[in-house]
Amino acid sequence: MNAPHPARTAHPPLSRRAESLGTENAFVVLAEVNALVRRGADIVSFCIGQPDFPTPPNVQDAAIAAIRAGRHGYTPSAGIDELRAAAAKDLSVRRGLSIAPEDVVVGSGAKPFIAYTIASVTDHGTGDEVIYPVPGFPIYESQILANGAVPVPVYLRESRQYAFDPAELEAAITDRTRLLILNTPHNPTGGILGRADLAAIAAVLARHPRIWVYADEIYSRLAYDGAFESIATRPGMLERTILSDGASKTWAMTGWRIGYAANRVLAPVFTRWITNTDSCASQISQWAAVEAIEGPQDAADAMRARFLERRDLIVGLLNQVPGITCKSPGGAFYAWPNVTEACRMTGCEDSEVFRKRLLHEAGVAVLADIHFGRRVPGDGQHIRFSYATSNDAIAEGIRRLDAFVRGMRRG
Q1: Which residues pair with 151 in a beta bridge?
Q2: What is the pTM of this model?
Q3: Which of 88, 121, 160, 315 has an alpha carbon 20 to 30 Å from 69's alpha carbon atom?
Q4: Are 284 and 71 in contact (CB under 8 A)?
């Protein structure tokens, strides 16, 4: 006879830090979408920000060659010399900078460098402040809080093509400010900080030399309207800027988990963080990334061209839907339409109610603005589309959105 299972007892308490740790809601909504699909629902999903293309064949071949060559073990925590050199050259050439291989550290994706940077330039629980963009990648605020710093938002406004007002940045700076996070091209709006924006930001920062800058430039090769610009090219900014880029978006390598960051002072600090956490990035993925950077760029160029085509398609279609307006994003693969009037027309209290009804009643999965921080005061309601999907899916998804809004309006 089987013994009865023992009664479940309460587990020991978790830390406040663990209880309050934020998440990336794209994955939360994706889990909800997948559960609906398993139950037979027909969903057109615009949730996840990752290329829908395969990793280029030459990159796949490089990984297979690394496996066959027995490159299975640990690497130095900062990454293999070949990848550090390739990344340094790529960062330098495309930005007009001079970055040495020893300034570059390779990580398991670019995301860990957000946490490494905050932990390296702020002290836990002392009131150190980090200024970050809102709306923005949710891990910024999550890691600011997890590292015991104080999050200070600077708002990206629709009227400024989703850049922030340099005067608002100046007003947000205090004697406790330690770090400014910049992201261009931007997730979730697709906005770009142009030459004039960066010059104005650099002018503000010149008056505050104690502030570091984390430049999240993971979408740097996906700038469509004009050349990509980096804050690090402005006078006096390279030394105090952490440049962050990686393989995920450019070469459709999200699951390979390869990112890199460059800063001469912080490179040895980041290396110690990696020794304490991951030990090193996957050696196989590192050799694949060397080929991605140094090999033919035909596949990456073709992906970029497809994303630009899709941008124009989705923006054009969104602007035909009643109650919706959408500015043309300058980069990345996200559209950020204003749905304030559509919410009113459909009787939805806000963008999150609109998102939920759109999913369950129309079979269209998007994210709401509240998944990217607090709403920008005075800017209304927004939702995010990732247009890293096919033209057919875009056309069908916006057709369903249009039918939903028109149907609810008649009702």
Answers
A1: 130
A2: 0.94
A3: 88
A4: yes
